[in-house]
Amino acid sequence: MRAWQVQRLGDPEQALELAEVEEPSPGPGEVVIEVEATALNFFDILLCRGEYQERPELPFTPGGEISGTVSEVGEGATMRAGQHVIATPPLPRGGYAGKVTVPVSSVFPIPESMPPEKAAALPITYQTAHVALHHRARLKAGETMLVHAGAGGVGSAAIQLARAAGARVIATAGGPEKVGICRELGAETAVDYREENFIEVVKEATDGRGADVVFDPVGGDTFDGSRRCVAFEGRILIIGFTGGRISDAPTNHILVKNYSVVGVHWGLYARVMPELVNSTHERLISLYEEGEIDPLIFRTVPFGELPEALKLLGSRGTYGKLVTRPGD
After folding, report:
1. Ramachandran region of residue 207, left (φ > 0), alpha (ψ -120 to 50) or beta?
2. Contacts of 273-276 spanning 24+ positions with Cβ under 8 A
3. Tens-place pLDDT, residues 206-258
4. Could you tell me the domains of the chain?
5. Which of 26, 177, 178, 328 sits most deeply, having the most CB atoms within 10 A of its CB?
6. What's the pTM?
């Protein structure tokens, strides 16, 4: 069986090697999934570099989102062979492989009609966005939400989910193509942050009030700007730091404007509140079947070109999600 392994720390093209490894077998409470599609994520790049919060021993296989078919069922596992699923395989046995063993607690059923690429793009990005909007921010219909990096994987999910909730969406993105994608996804206003000051656009669009909710996977200067255009009693959702710099949140400014800075660590919910993750998945499948959400796929890349695809992802040269098919 082929699997990409991080053999040494570095950028993906230096760290990853395609290796022949033994096929996995399930332990108690586990299933083996034949992987049909795997989504690429920015944290995979950080894992290759040794810059992620988890640092598994070498060698290990990245890949945190997969779709596929259950091929073997371990003792006590409440699933059946042949079932179509998505999963978030834990390290060090990630989804950049032909097959992977996953605890049933990290496996979710999907409709047979759901394409593998769309399914693989669903688990982390859409669950993160849904938990952020509904559990952490308590987004209400009619509120205004500012989504940064709106054409990215988690940003595009946030736009769709906010629109499905009846919110008004303002999005930021870099370049005309990505701005157009944000509008197609449902953003009422889309800002090219390379050409425009999003603070001024938000204030003008809200008659000076500001955004009720800010969805920020970027951090750095973007967070600093968000503080200046968040509404009274607004909520700034901290999703990640793809901008590189981790911002400071001055408590005096938070006090003056009475807004909240809210952390969203999705992976922690899977351990601490699994029932929330399960109910969120069920709701996302309903929204997909209702046509309210549709994962945005930039490209399906050949499995043998995975390191180069991760490099492209890290350069911000993509939108939505990149996926690969290990069986091809």
Report:
1. left
2. 274/105, 276/131, 276/135
3. 999 999 999 999 999 999 999 999 999 999 999 988 777 888 889 989 999 99
4. 2-122+296-324 (3.90.180.10), 124-267 (3.40.50.720)
5. 178
6. 0.93
